[in-house]
């Protein structure tokens, strides 16, 4: 990869570092953290088709997770991208997004879908995706909760 920030595919030995990024990202409440912990445990145990990427270093500063979109043939969905607060605006998220696109493309992916929410806390993410060349392609009103929409971006890979 030619990113300024070193990114690599995570392995099960990265489980605690991945969970630390998930916790410290501030994106999830307690119930969502429980879900993410169970999802990571399933992945680490080999029971998942998800691909986790991690910032490579002694104290990883970010992570991303993507998976093939069921029944689509060649679409992938980046279901998670987060950085620790101290790593924001330092190129880690940009490197993770590039690595996610490269990972999907390497698996024959043609499209990378990226979901976020309309919540005000996610405004920086929406600006980031738009500035990174992703197209806003859908909004599903009230998807996450009343008044909190699902906002979907698309990055073409081929």
Describe the structure.
The chain is an alpha+beta fold and 158 residues long. The protein has a domain at 7-113: Aminopeptidase, CATH 3.40.630. Helices cover 31% and strands 32% of the residues. The protein has four helices and seven strands, in the order E-H-H-E-E-E-H-E-H-E-E. It has helices at residues 15-24, 30-44, 92-106, 123-131, and strands at 7-9, 51-55, 62-68, 75-83, 111-117, 135-145, 148-156. Strands 1-2-3-4-5-7-6 form a seven-stranded mixed sheet, with helices on both faces. Strand 2 and strand 3 (62-68) form a beta hairpin. Helix 1 (15-24) runs antiparallel to helix 2. The longest helix is centred in the first third of the chain and has 15 residues, at 30-44. The radius of gyration is 15 Å and the shape is globular. The protein starts with 6 loop residues before the first strand and ends with a strand. The relative contact order is 0.15.
What's a concise summary of this model?
The chain is globular, with a radius of gyration of 15 Å.
What is the radius of gyration? 15 Å
Task: Provide mean pLDDT, rounded.
Answer: 92
Unreliable stretches covering 5 or more consecutive residues = none
What class, by secondary structure content? alpha+beta
User: What top-tier CATH class of one domain fits best?
Assistant: Alpha Beta
Shape: globular
Please give the number of β-strands: 7
């Amino acid at each position: 990869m030619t990113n300024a920030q070193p990114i690599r595919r995570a392995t099960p030995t990265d489980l605690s570092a991945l969970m630390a990024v998930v916790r410290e990202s501030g994106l999830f409440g307690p119930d969502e953290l429980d879900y993410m912990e169970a999802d990571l445990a399933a992945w680490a145990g080999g029971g998942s088709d998800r691909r986790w990427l991690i910032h490579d270093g002694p104290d990883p500063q970010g992570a991303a997770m993507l998976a093939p979109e069921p029944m689509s043939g060649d679409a992938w969905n980046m279901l998670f991208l987060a950085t620790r607060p101290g790593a924001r605006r330092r190129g880690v998220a940009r490197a993770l997004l590039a690595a996610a696109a490269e990972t999907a493309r390497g698996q024959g992916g043609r499209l990378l879908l990226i979901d976020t929410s309309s919540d005000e806390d996610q405004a920086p993410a929406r600006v980031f995706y738009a500035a990174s060349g992703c197209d806003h392609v859908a909004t599903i009103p009230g998807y996450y909760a009343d008044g909190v929409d699902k906002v979907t971006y698309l990055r073409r890979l081929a």
